[in-house]
Write a structure and sequence with these properties.
The complex is a heterodimer of chains A (114) and B (114). With 114 residues, chain A is mostly beta strands. Chain A is 0% helix and 51% strand. In chain B, strand 5 and strand 6 form a beta hairpin. The termini of chain B are far apart. Classes of the chains: A mainly beta (114), B mainly beta (114).
Chain lengths: 114, 114
């Protein structure tokens, strides 16, 4: 079975600073990988996903993520954070065979200082 | 097109009562998944329905049940409520298998058990 770890529970950055949120997964092959964002009082929204091909994936709201097979990682990045990016971010892993259900990380709470 | 809707948005119940939550997926989506979100446990998968059949089930007691109708709308029911059932319940719809497709989440139903 797959698993996913988001090592950082909280991250605080200043507005305009760069951002990297970490995600590590455990799976026997290359999984499907997702990043979702949850703003306060709302459901989750997909930022980007990786299925195959180019390991650098572009998403919405200026986010990108890079799949690194050797490190079993799928870190999310943004070059310049805006105050509206303050939210909870979830990494999710889906298996290519077997379970139909993705496994979500515990989430990273992003705090943005003005 | 309209997003995933969930009703009600907020519920307050007392221990021992039962509750029914409703979810209307995006038009054309046949897969509906339910998740329980709490600060301590994160996002936990409850069950997934596809074409009116429960296709996957998480590790929750039998007090948690669900169903899906022919129009893909779904309901989940929790009987004999316990204090620990207080959580945000999220519904997500997708075209097919959630592990391999983008899930669209509703805003959730906030259940408080007193």
């Amino acid at each position: 079975a797959q698993s996913v770890t988001q090592p950082d529970i909280h991250i605080t950055v200043s507005e305009g600073a760069s951002l990297e949120l970490r995600c590590n997964y455990s799976y026997g092959a290359t999984p499907y990988l997702f990043w979702y964002v949850q703003s306060p009082g709302q459901g989750l929204q997909l930022l980007l996903k990786y299925f195959s091909g180019d390991t650098l994936v572009q998403g919405i709201k200026g986010f990108e993520a890079e799949f690194k097979r050797s490190q079993s990682s799928f870190n999310l990045r943004k070059p310049s954070v805006h105050w509206s990016d303050a939210a909870e971010y979830f990494c999710a892993v889906g298996a290519r065979g077997g379970s139909y259900i993705p496994t979500f990380g515990r989430g990273t709470s992003l705090i943005v200082h003005p | 097109k309209a997003g995933v809707t969930q009703t009600p948005r907020y519920l307050i119940k007392t221990r021992g009562q039962q509750v029914t939550l409703s979810c209307s997926p995006i038009s054309g989506h046949r897969s509906v998944s339910w998740y329980q979100q709490t600060p301590g446990q994160g996002l936990q998968f409850l069950f997934e329905y596809f074409s009116e059949t429960q296709r996957n089930k998480g590790n929750f007691p039998g007090r948690f049940s669900g169903r899906q109708f022919s129009n893909s709308r779904s309901e989940m029911n929790v009987s004999t409520l316990e204090l620990g059932d207080s959580a945000l319940y999220l519904c997500a719809s997708s075209l097919d298998q959630p592990a391999r497709n983008e899930q669209f989440f509703g805003p959730g139903t906030r259940l408080t058990v007193l």
